[in-house]
Amino acid sequence: MSDDILRQHHAVWEKKPILRLLYTEWYREIIAWLRTGRTLEVGGGTGNLKEFFPGALCTDIVALPWLDAVADAQSLPFASKSFANVVLFDTLHHLENVRLFFDESLRVLEPEGRLVIMDPYISMLSWPVYHFLHSEPVDLSADPFAMHPPSADRRPFDANQAIATLLFERHGDQFARLYPQYKKLFHRRLAFFAYPLSGGFEHPSLLPVSLVRPVLAVERVLQVLGRLLGFRMMVVLEKSS
């Protein structure tokens, strides 16, 4: 089932220019934070990162023609200290036990290696949209550090869209205590209007492609209102030397 969803997303990516335009902005920002060296994308899904960063090793939990390897984020099949960067784009909120992933990311990253995360952000504006109009749930009462026994009933696309908000904001102090090896270099709330109006991968766009860049320019002016308007969060962590 998960490979069917990823194939559908890949087809949408090929046919929906507004998505490619928006994601191009975000991938460029991600790439600007990457160090020189081997780069691993975990949960690569549609394999888009390679279009913008050709040397990336793109993985997911299923084998697909545009991916390079099959890998579980909670048990990565790679040697210790083998990557300069690890990238997660819309993957963190799907993980059953995020602590296992953070442990693994520390293991596979080189000293001063970077972990770049882009994930949903729960703001006053995004909460009703994600809660009522999106297929994935939002649970702000969840303990993001809880360890769950593996469930045979869990599906790969089960999720909690609030995970990044919980980890890096509501429980940010606890994250810092649990992972002192990580220094936060960057933390930004973004994607105010253009992204929700694009319809994402599941809905038709309500925004003409010609208006995307003007809307993004307005979003940059309103950046200080990210806590109220944001639909996404980008966080960059660096492993200590």
Structural notes for this entry:
- By secondary structure, this protein is an alpha/beta fold.
- The chain has ten helices and seven strands.
- It has helices spanning 2-15, 17-32, 49-52, 98-108, 126-133, 163-170, 172-178, 194-198, 212-221, 226-229, and strands at 39-42, 57-60, 69-70, 83-89, 109-120, 182-190, 232-239.
- It has a seven-stranded mixed β-sheet.
- Helix 6 (163-170) packs across helix 7 (172-178).
- It starts with a helix and ends with a strand.
- The model has no long low-confidence stretch (mean pLDDT 93).
Jot down its keywords.
36% helix, 241 residues, 7-stranded mixed beta sheet
List the helices and strands and how they pair.
Layout: H1 2-15, H2 17-32, E1 39-42, H3 49-52, E2 57-60, E3 69-70, E4 83-89, H4 98-108, E5 109-120, H5 126-133, H6 163-170, H7 172-178, E6 182-190, H8 194-198, H9 212-221, H10 226-229, E7 232-239
Parallel strand pairs: 1-2, 1-4, 2-3, 4-5
Antiparallel strand pairs: 5-7, 6-7
Biggest sheet descriptor: 7 strands, mixed
Radius of gyration in whole Å, from Cα? 17 Å
Unreliable runs, pLDDT <50, ≥5 residues? none
The total beta strand count reads 7
What is the strand content? 15-25%
Please provide the ordered H/E string of secondary-structure elements.
HHEHEEEHEHHHEHHHE
Summing up helix and strand content along with how strands pair, one would put the structural category as alpha/beta
Q: Helix segment count?
A: 10
Tell me the span between the first and last alpha carbons: 41 Å
- State the helical fraction: 25-40%
Oligomerization status of the protein chains: single chain
| Mean pLDDT level | 93
Biggest sheet, spatial arrangement of strands: 3-2-1-4-5-7-6
